[in-house]
Fold:
Amino acid sequence: MAKQRHAEIAGAGLAGLTVASVLAQSGWTVRVHEKGAELREIGAGIFLWENALRALESIGAYDAVTSTAERVQSPELRDHRNRLLQREWLRHGRLFTVARRHLHKSLVENALASGVEIQTNSAVAGGTPAGALQLADGTVHEADLVIGADGVYSKVRDSLGLAKSVRDLGDGCGRHLIPRTADDPVGTTYEAWSGGRRIGVVPCSPEETYIFLCCPESDVDGTDQKPFNRQTWVDTFPDFRSQLERIPDDGEGRWASFYDVEAFAWHKGKVAILGDAAHAMSPNLGQAACVAMTNAVALGQALKVHDVDRALDVWQESERPMVTRVQRYSRFYGRVGTRWPSNLLDVRSGFIWALGKSAPVQKRINFAAEYFPSITR
Structure:
């Protein structure tokens, strides 16, 4: 009888929990290490595009996640004059929006039901190419595969010298949850641009609406979101006063920078890095978590047909080119949204309108949502 394979995973975020379920459902024993005292997700809401929904279906978590999610039929994008630029901007296939904590809770429950062991208060110090996860308290866990899904500042990645660059992109976003009212959209999302600022109004559960407020870090008033500098955003987006007035003065939401991570490689020896540890990106296309989840599925596919060493090579060769393209388009979207010259905003509106009307451009930019891995050999 073949020996049961074992995986040690650093990080109980969306990527780590997804790959944990993927492996456990394939017969692996899996242990996940979370440095926090409790299992929780930081953030407010999240877009789940077709690729992420297929990943959830593949691990049996789709119904639980979408049970309180909002099915989005017509996302809208408006400009600084409140003119509608697009009603189908960057939308292909199914699209749901959901509260991040609900998504995270569903993934935790799915992993536990799949037989995954999750340890809290278990900070990770690094990994070794031979296949060992080193904890901050000196404990060493050997495994057939170690996965670093421990975020932008990954201890696993950095212990192996895999980081090529970790870049602050110079812009970021505040994320807030507010009580949902009749003023908020139903079955749609609103996004509006004004200068370098962007606002999003996103229903994400029957009770809550997710608000995102993006701006360059040089916009001191705009980044002042804890406590919340309400008036500066009302002045910029008066049509969204109702939503802005529901943001708590000193709630959980805060402004945080966007990062890009590029790695020399996604693996070394018997250690792989996944999610933000390998390819953090700005959330401008809503694909950072979606791509991480589909990459988790792809890794499981490769491990079904190859030994660990070969599987990691095949996985990287298959998925990395797609991720590189998503990062590039997300950076482009961010530059257009936050760094466009203020005296040429009408030109920007025309540019975005034209992009949205071009089916080939739409397909090229939004290809990740339509992509799902299929590694069979």
